Amino acid sequence: MCILSLLIRIRCSMFQIMPYKSTFLTTIILFIFCTSCKKELVDQAIYDLVKTAESDLGMVVSAHPLASEVGADIIAKGGTAADAAIATQLALAVVYPRAGNIGGGGFMVYREGNGAVTALDYREKAPAAAHKDMYLDEDGNIIKDLSTKGHLASGVPGTVAGLYATHDKYGRLGFNKLIEPAIQLAENGFKLTKNEAKRLNELKEVFVELNGEDFPFVKASPWKAGDLLIQKALANTLRQIKTKGPNGFYWGQTADYVVEEMQSGNGIITKEDLSSYEASWRTPIHVTYRDYDIYSMSPPSSGGVALGQLTKLLEPMELSQYGFQSVESIHRIVEAERRVYADRAEHLGDSDFYDVPIDLLLDEAYLEERINDFSADSASSSASIVAGDFAMAKESFETTHLSVMDGEGNAASVTTTINASYGSKVWVKGAGFFLNNEMDDFSSKPGTPNMFGLIGAEANKIEAGKRMLSSMTPTIIEKNNQLFMVLGTPGGSTIITSVLQVFLNVVEYGMNISEAVAAKRFHHQWLPDQIMYEKEGNFDADKIKILESMGHKLRAVDHIGTVEAIMVVNDTMIVGAADPRRDDHAAAVRE
Ligand code: GLY
After folding, report:
1. Are 287 and 174 in contact (CB under 8 A)?
2. Cα 5 vs. chain centroid, distance in angstroms?
């Protein structure tokens, strides 16, 4: 198919260059070829994606052009960055259902124009009937797929509570105005991109297995780019939320649908689980790095603590002297990551249930001690790195991020997820949305990796009502006390290191924000003991050989993270950078 399409493309371009040489028959054949060629090109360009945009009035960068434009329009109508973040998330729940959601949860770091920074936690919670051995068989072994697929994989959703908590504190426009674009997109449908059509076709079998054939995400013939996806049931649920507020989700008809869905499978979420869900305001993690103040998400995400540890470990190394992705830079970053992810595995969990030693993990003396066995010439072995002692002082990586700035200096950094692509793959009949499979982010069995290969322990064991540990790293950075950057990304365990690299690309390697986002990335997470690196980047054969000779193990992957970033340039110009790796889009606010 690809070769045929390539041949057709070559023939088509030949036809454009040398039409006068064509015989009548060739003309007919080429006309047929070119018609299909043109169609394919049209299919690839359902939306005009903007990867870099500038404005002094505001910016929204998200995973889908329709969602970014909804958010930018809200700012243009007088909304705050919070209003835009709410409207964009609701639109993503419709047009980007593989990760955008009302059936999952998320985190937001918010900065007001006056410089006050807060963090909102609307992470899913384990249902009341959850317990630490719920995914183990009688011999104590993990039962395959139980925490990732089907009804038992879901935590109690937090997104709708999070949207209302955001609106109560920072909203200016009525919530009805923020939800209406999402209702229209669900009711009238939107055109699928090529990526989205491909993903739906790949998942058809599991969708049918869990939901039957009677729902909008499966159809007899394969999906293709440009097909309209209409979600009437979701439109009705959004209307319930519009008229009844959070009760339109956590009580009444929508809650009934969720509980009925649970009972039709092996699910355990009850009406009480839903009606008792609340979002929580947290104190963001704050660290400094030279002239920069970095604010990121606190537990139950590991993102802020890990990013804080990494930047504190790397700051004294003055990476700029070694250059972007030089062997020296890669080695230093990897050795910091190895230690930080070992700490994550041991010490991070929901701070409402476990005393996470945040201050100690970020303590300069502790971090100095942590890196004092670093060798510039050879890799440490992850087997020899255990989590720090204070007495001593895989899946498809979905999730989605949106970055927002308005013209008043307010900024929202929001990462939200249903974990895997389309979460548990269970679609709530009647209510029209997918449920998360976030329970897999708990440590189902100490020392056994989850779908991201992450190891966990006591701090992240399953307990009723507890939030599972996350890697989401919504981040806001100030430079000399002025708003400088908003960024974040999906990518499971690679989220933290992707955010780190975009920051370093700007402040250490002198890239502009679009270059920093587009640059190829690498990742190490202690276990498995390997450097994952993106293909077709700077990891050439010579570099790989040198790194291997130092004791590193390497693995090439297709891509790491999909960063959405905004940076303030020359004090006033807001520059949005959408990741070129997917259908992401930067929408500038216009008059
Ligand atoms: N579900 C991915 C994360 O929260 O890290």
Report:
1. no
2. 33
SS3 215: coil
Q: What CA–CA distances, in Å, run from 374 to 5, 368, 397, 523?
A: 51, 10, 31, 18
Instruction: Give residues (CB < 6 A) around ligand 1.
Output: 399, 417, 419, 438, 441, 470-472, 492
Angle at which helices 541-549 and 327-347 cross, to 10°: 60
DSSP per-residue codes, 534-585: ETTSS--HHHHHHHHHTT--EEEES-----EEEEEETTTEEEEEE-TTTT-E
Longest dimension (CA), the chain: 85
For 79-114, the pLDDT digits (tens) are: 999 999 999 999 999 999 999 999 999 999 999 999
Cβ-based neighbours of 327, under 8 Å, separated by 6 or more:
543, 546, 547, 550
Q: Which listed residue (254, 399, 475, 497) is catalytic?
A: 399
Residue 461, helix vs strand vs coil: strand
Q: Which domain holds residue 531?
A: 282-397+472-588
Q: Is position 231 within any domain?
A: no
Position 151: which residue type?
H
d(CA 355, CA 160): 28
pLDDT per residue as tens digits for the range 294-349: 999 999 999 999 999 999 999 999 999 999 999 999 999 999 999 999 999 999 99
CA atoms within 13 A on the CB side of 14: 14
Q: Taking phi first (over 0 means left), then psi (-120 to 50 degrees means alpha), and beta for anything else, what does residue 53 get?
A: beta
Of all protein residues, the one whose alpha carbon is nearest to atom 2 of ligand 1 is 492
**pLDDT tens column, 451-461:** 888 888 899 99
**What's the structural domain count of the chain?**
2
443 three-class SS: strand
Across the beta sheet with 531-534, the strand order is 522-523, 531-534, 554-557
**Domain-embedded: residue 247:** no
Residue 193 lies in a domain: no
Mutate to test the pocket of ligand 1, among 416, 421, 472 (most ligand atoms within 8 A of CB): 472
3-state secondary structure (DSSP) of residue 522:
strand
Tokens of 46: 């359902």
Respond yes or no: is residue 118 known to be catalytic.
no
CA of 151 to the centre of ligand 1 (A): 18
pTM score of the predicted model: 0.91
Beta carbons of 455 and 385 less than 8 angstroms apart: no
C-alpha of residue 101 to centroid of ligand 1, in Å? 14
Q: What is the DSSP string of 59-79?
A: EEEESSHHHHHHHHHHHHTT-
**Nearest protein CA to atom 4 of ligand 1, as residue:** 470
Q: What's the CATH code of the domain at 300?
A: 3.60.20.40
Q: Residue 399 corresponds to which tokens in the numbers above?
A: 């999730």
Rounded to whole angstroms, the Cα distance separating 72 from 54 reads 12
Within a domain: 494: yes
DSSP β-bridge partners for residue 578 = 564
